[in-house]
Amino acid sequence: MSNHRMKIAIQKSGRLSDDSLQLLERCGIQFARSKDKLFWFGRNLPVDLLLVRDDDIPRLLLDGVCDLGICGENVTRECLLDRSAANTALTAEVALDFGACRLALAIPEQHAFSGIQDLSGKRIATSYPGLTGEYLQQHAVQASIVELSGSVEIAPSMGTADAIVDLVSTGTTLRANHLREVAEVLISQAVLYSGTRTLDAELNRFKARLIQRIQGVLKAKESKYVMLHAPKDSVQRIADILPAAEAPTVLSLDGQPDKVAIHTLCRENVFWEHLEELQAAGATAVLVLPVEKMLA
Ligand code: PRP
Ligand code: ZN
What we know:
The chain is α+β, with helices and mostly antiparallel strands. It is built from 9 helices and 16 strands. It is globular and about 80 Å long. The model has no long low-confidence stretch (mean pLDDT 93). The structure holds 1-O-pyrophosphono-5-O-phosphono-alpha-D-ribofuranose and zinc ion. The site of zinc ion (ZN) has 3 residues, from loops.
């Protein structure tokens, strides 16, 4: 690994892996993939990809092993709490709009719950001792934290804890273990963070370019290009229906003096309801196209 290449860490296998890799590939990075290795080489751009456990990414960034990393706010906040005495700062560059989840407090389904104070004197199993401790302190509850590195959800049925604080995404894991969520500790999503290593001017420029591309991919994902035909006198009405639309391009139609073609970029998703409203306003031949890339 050379010092003149950007080291980017993503989760090797888990909730964030596919979206993280897809995002980087959409930025135009081609990787020489190797099945089992922890390390993929960027063939066309100066990028080395590290595939690691998501929980390790904040530490790799803080230690200057990686320059950019994609991980959840949950693991980052936990890592920073753990290191509170040391020099700890990670810059959140871009919130990535995937990996939504929450750190939640859950108890066995059949147990009653009247409030956080019920946990006073109880045992809470978690892989997030820092955030759990902070939460309990904020609510002035004294409970003991049982730190586990995995399979937290089975602790109550094993009799090693009375409640858990764990990550919930779809809720399948909780249901499968007959647990119910009673409080939310933290809401999280995937974020691109910068590390602490000082980059030379060339790599800094490359980093800025990459971040601009990532923002472009995110914008493109939400945006749609809409083309339609409309009566000449309803251009304004049509433009008002389209969500977050740019100034439309209005073109004349050959042999149809009363009609025009309207082309416009919508910076928000276009739903069936919008199309039905457009139709009611006289629009015909409505096409909604995905946008692949965008440079603001
Ligand atoms: C979390 C958590 C649960 C699961 C919840 O693990 O520990 O096991 O996801 O998801 P669900 O609500 O959709 O069932 P995470 O993705 O952090 O993986 P890791 O613990 O292996 O790092
Ligand atoms: Zn994890």
